[in-house]
Structures are given as structure tokens and as C-alpha cells.
Amino acid sequence: MPENKHLRLFLSVLYILLALFVLWISFKYLIGWLAPFIIAFIFSRIIERPVAFFEKKFRFPRPLSSILFTILCYGLIGTALYFVSSKLVNALVMLFDQLRNLDISLLVEKSNISFMSLLSHFPLEIQSFIYSNIESWLSSLVSALQNLIAPIASYTANIATLVPSVLIFVVAAIVSTYFLSCDYNKLRELLLNVLPQKWQERFRQTKKQVSSTLVSYLRALLVLICITFVELAIGLSVLRVSNSILIAAIIAIIDALPILGTGWILLPWAIYSIFTGNYITAIGLAIIYAVVLIIRNLIEPKIVGQHIGLHPLATLFSMYIGLKLFGIVGMFMPIPVALIKQFYEWGYFDFLKRKN
Fold first, then answer.
1. CA distance 183 to 34
2. Binning pLDDT at 50, 70 and 90, where does residue 136 land?
3. Considering the chain, what percentage of its residues have pLDDT values greater than 70?
4. Where does the chain have alpha helices with state H?
5. Are 228 and 296 in contact (CB under 8 A)?
6. What's the N-to-C CA distance of the chain in angstroms?
7. Mean pLDDT of 11-21
8. Burial of 139 (0-12, 13-18, 19+ CB in 10 A)
9. Cα(201)–Cα(197) distance, rounded to whole angstroms?
10. Which of 130, 151, 262, 278 has the fewest beta carbons closer than 10 A?
């Protein structure tokens, strides 16, 4: 670093801005291109222990062990996805059948009678206020439903065009997982031989920390799924919903996926319950959604922060900034922030510090 303190400050700020720009480019563009290979790397590390165990204990050739556990890993994932998606499709088919058999005019008449009966118990001032605003509320509700249904219809219409891309993505992930598992040691040695000697130890240290942080994040995600599952199971059981445990498990898994959440299931379910006259169920579902949403937002920064080594406030801040900058993908921002924090503690950024 130069001796001039102003120049040192300028270069330090420039390095930080450059690092943020690279991070932004990586999240915005490269993550989509590299996603199957990132997934392949994660799963190749997950199956590494059983692959190595079979290789040493039973004298299995490593290629055979790798292909065996690659197929087993993706087979389990595919089975789980098929089970969840089939349950969702069956539930949607039943819902559409019920909607198709509804007498809309009779339903509207019954809903209007029930609403007027309920409203008659309120003071006249409140009745007048509701009467004067109900039209705008209904139009807002219709608009919100249209905004909700439009993307779903668009995605449904584009499913056929997405199939080839999804197949290529899956095949690339599976094949890459096999090769990374089969030739991992060779690839690691090749990369180490390319790196200068002084960087090899840092590479090993960095690889170990990245793997540890990803595993810790997945553990935190599993804890959040379990908490959401317990909340949903209790709430749906109180409402006496059939198959409450299974439905709670499916919704909890959906809640962990990017973009989707409990609101995508509970809110349309609550609206349907209102239209079918099940007001207690509708109110109960709304309460469950509010409880899950509030608890999730309160505990997620703390649980994720504890697992990956960040303060809850830093976790919440990085999630919020990531969401604003990169959208849903930015919700994973605590992972690179935790890695940068650890690298700083290891002295990777000592060149930015002022010389004495």
C-alpha cells in the first residue's frame, strides 16, 4: 500500500466498492448460470462421506460408489418432490371441483345475509363507515386477487416452454455431481498445483469455511421448517382440518422455498373459506398466517445468525439489503456476509489496514 494516507483511503474504498460490485454481478447474473454446478458441488459434498466409506470399507471403486450415491441422492429428492407436488395437485383438483360445483348466486346471497346479520351487531357509526367503504374494499380485493392470479396463469402458460430448460438444468446438476464426487481429489490437487504455495493453505481454509457455513445455514433452515411445522400442525389441528399433520408438513416445506411462503397456501384457503361460509376456518387460517409470519420474522435473524456466526441485527440488515438489491435471491445474503466476516478475522483483508 502507498504511504500517502489519502491515497490509501481512496484505494481501500475502491477495493470495497469493487468487491461489492463483483458480489452484485455474481448474485444478479452468474448465480443463474452456475446454479446447477453450485447444487452439484453441495450434493457432491453431502454424499462424500458415504462414498468414501464404501470405497474404503467394501473396496468399491470410487466411480461406482459415486454413481450409486448420486442416483440415490437425486432419487430421494425426486421422490420427495413428486410426493409433495402430487399432494398439492390433488388438493388443487379437489378445490377446482368444489368451485365448479358452487352455485355462485346462492353463495353470494348467503354471504350477504350472513354479513348483514353480523354487521347488525355493530354500532350505527361503524355500520355507516363500513357501508360507505365496502365498495372500494371489494374493488381492492378483486384487484389483489387479479394480481395474484395473473402471475400464476402466466407461469402455467409457460410451463411447456420451461420443460426443456428444467431438464437440461437437472441433467447438468446430476452429471456434475457425479464427476465432482468421482474426481474431486484429482480436481482439488489440480487446482492446488495451479495456486501459489502461499495461497494453498488459504484455499483449504476457505473451502472448509464455505462448506461449514453452507451446512450451518441448512441446519438453521431445517430448524425454521420444524418451528413452522409445529405452529401449523397445532393451528390446523385446533381448526379440525383433516390430514392436518401432512398439510402442515407440506406448507412448512413450501415456506422454506424462495418466492413461495405460507401466504400462498393459507390466504387463498382463507378466502375460499369465506366464500363457502366457513368463517371460523377463515379467521383461524388468517390468525395462523399472522402468527407464523410474526414468529418467523422475529426468530429467523437470531437462528440464522447463531448458526452462521453473525449478530441477529447484522443478519436482519444483510437480509433486508439483499432483498432490496437482488430480490428473493438476496435473502441468502447472510451467507457471503458471514464468510467475509470470517475472512476478515483470518486477516485476508490486512492489506486494507493502515500501515503504522
1. 19
2. confident
3. 73
4. 5-25, 31-46, 48-57, 62-100, 104-119, 124-157, 159-182, 184-194, 197-238, 244-256, 263-275, 279-308, 312-326, 334-345
5. yes
6. 12
7. 68
8. exposed
9. 8
10. 151
Under a CB-based contact definition with an 8 Å cutoff, are residues 229 and 249 in contact?
yes
Of 33, 23, 42, whose CA–CA distance to 326 is shortest? 23
Q: Collect all residues with Cβ–Cβ distance below 8 Å to 222 and sequence separation of at least 6.
A: none
The candidate with the shortest Cα–Cα distance to 183, out of 44, 33, 43, 29, is: 44
Burial of 161 (0-12, 13-18, 19+ CB in 10 A): exposed
In a 13 Å sphere around the CA of 275, the CA atoms on its Cβ side amount to 13
Q: For residue 340, what pLDDT is reported?
A: 78
Q: 111 or 291: which carries more pLDDT confidence?
A: 291
Q: Is residue 107 a contact partner of residue 275, using CB atoms and an 8 Å limit?
A: yes
Spans of all domains in the chain: 1-102+161-196, 209-356
Place of cell 432490496: 324
Diameter of the chain measured on Cα atoms: 83
Q: How confident is the model at residue 356 (pLDDT cuts 50, 70, 90)?
A: very low
Q: Can you tell me the distance from the alpha carbon of 282 to that of 267, in angstroms, rounded to the nearest whole number?
A: 9
pLDDT value for 238 = 93
Report the predicted TM-score, pTM, of the whole model to 2 decimal places.
Answer: 0.64
